[in-house]
Amino acid sequence: DKIIIFLGGSTVEQQYIPDEKTSAGLMQQFLRNNQKDYEVINTGVSGLRGYHNLILMNYLNNIIPEEKEIIYINLIGFNDWSYSLKAFLDNPDRSSNPLISGSPLNIKNLLHPQFFLLTNIFRSIRNNFVTYQNQTLTYDFDQQHKDVFSTYNEKPKVSFNNDKYEKMTVWYSEILEKLISKCEDRNKTRCIFLDQPVSWHEGDFNDLDFTEKLWMTPSYSKAAMSPDSLIRVSNEFNLKLKQKVSECSSQKCHFIAASEIIRSPKNFYDDAHFTNFGANKIYDILKNYFLIEFF
Fold it and tell me: What percent of the chain has pLDDT over 70?
């Protein structure tokens, strides 16, 4: 028996896409169609970072029977670099690693209407209620985006010096090393790490229709990073993930450069959340990997 577990934040959760059309849903259908005895579980939740993946892996490793093979699929990066950017925007002299705990940077974040802890508590209550009422939830991404978030065009632009980028990738390295170690700790375990695609690389920052959709620059911040800074931080974090996975001492960890395949803005609602087209691209990448490695 094999269990495929998707780990990550909102780019894995894909809450604005019907379940059967999410990357995880498409993967489950593919496996069923090919009569493969795999269970697929999507644990993606908005706002989760590498630290939360680590805690979840530790929990799952302890409760899933040892005879079952676990394949973890980590789509990771965005929330970690966004959190790191916010840490320096809040405190330019920060030295401690903000990524090694699940706490908010400031207590006031707990009261933010879209901070993920409160958002997910509310979402859990709401989802259980509508399930009990036998109702169907529908989401309007564009409307929520307009109602809740300050977009890129409305924010002053800032950039960081080289030292801060170096410090952020050091913070990220600490989390990645722990995730890789957790994968290696358990027998019958494989970890697939996908780096984070974004719309910034091929998006036109001089096009107001494009920039009006951006808000995760970083999110819930009064300032936004300059276009060059956004592209640099995504590259730095994705390269660090590739480097750390390549240093894995066993054959349990595998890296896929999803960011080099999914680049066009048509794959995204905004900075990084996938449209149906983008979710299908992630599925295609994973399907081809499984066809080569397992089938």
Answer: 84
